[in-house]
Amino acid sequence: MKPLYREITPFHSFFLKTKSQHRVYVEQSGNPQGIPVIFLHGGPCSGTRPGHRQFFNPEKYHIILMDQRGCGQSLPFGEIEHNTTQDLIDDMEQIRKQLAIKQWLLFSGSWGSTLALLYAQQHTVCVLGMIIRGVFLARQKDLDWFAQEGVGRIYPEKWADLLHSIPESGRQDWVKGLYDTVFGGDEITQRRASRAWIVWGGQVALMQDYQAPDKPVHVSDKMVKQVQMEVHYALNKYFISENQIIENCTVIQDIPTIIVHGRQDLVCPMEAGVCLHKALPKAEYIVLPNAGHIASGDEMIDALVDAMDRIIK
């Protein structure tokens, strides 16, 4: 089993200026002369962490982390205006040009995998290769699985708590109902729904490893904004057309790609990984029998670190 690489610190960080109010946090670590790789985090509205640098050999890779608009250290936090999928793709391309990078690798997971595939389809010649973990294709059935009819049947109690956190009038069109609730003027209802959504996401992502807090956790303004952004993307169907990623895979057939998917992933079920592999038959497809959604655990870490060690060749 390969472990994570040693902890490292960035040698440079900056805020990318955009044509809007957004300032996107970017950091660089590892070898400035190494092979460039950009880490694309999940969410939307997750963010990067210091540990994300450790998937890469710091002697071989020029490691670039970015917090997507409104996420992590990017400013203003939680801002949804001028915050669409295309905006994020444009930010990536602006970062590449600003750093004078001709081509780079894309390392991605969950929502980040969506972003990687869409970026590669628009900027194919700029992509050396892709590591795609926990495939999320942003189709209606992917959203329905997580937030309508699907994984709620596995955790019916938590699903019921989530459903009842929004007014009864909004439960028919559940995503729209949650959107109206977390953006509504009733602060108590807004925070209750935000808490339920955060608990739901934690339960589904961590499964048996999820530990509910002993007492109610205070829902901060930052937590509400995070939920608002997630629902903003979901309500707008992630700002892409239905099945757009799969339909446009013909243009990325020759990009070296490794797809890594945990069989126990309940956030992004295996069907999405199978579907992507059918659309990209030249890609290496790795199924981890004991891994779930998140990029942790010995099996998942070994697969991701090994993939980065091998793709460098």
Compile the SSE list and pairings.
Elements: E1 12-17, E2 23-30, E3 35-40, E4 61-66, H1 85-98, E5 104-109, H2 111-122, E6 127-133, H3 140-147, H4 156-163, H5 174-182, H6 187-206, H7 221-235, H8 244-247, E7 257-262, H9 270-279, E8 284-288, H10 298-311
Parallel strand pairs: 3-4, 3-5, 5-6, 6-7, 7-8
Antiparallel strand pairs: 1-2, 2-4
Helix pairs in contact: 4-6, 5-7, 6-7
Descriptive account of the structure:
With 313 residues, this protein is of the alpha/beta class. The chain has two domains: 12-138 and 241-311, Alpha/Beta hydrolase fold, catalytic domain (Rossmann fold), CATH 3.40.50; 141-238, no CATH class. It contains ten helices and eight strands. It has helices at residues 85-98, 111-122, 140-147, 156-163, 174-182, 187-206, 221-235, 244-247, 270-279, 298-311; strands at residues 12-17, 23-30, 35-40, 61-66, 104-109, 127-133, 257-262, 284-288. An eight-stranded mixed β-sheet has the order 1-2-4-3-5-6-7-8, sandwiched between helices. α6 (187-206) packs across α7. The model has no long low-confidence stretch (mean pLDDT 96).
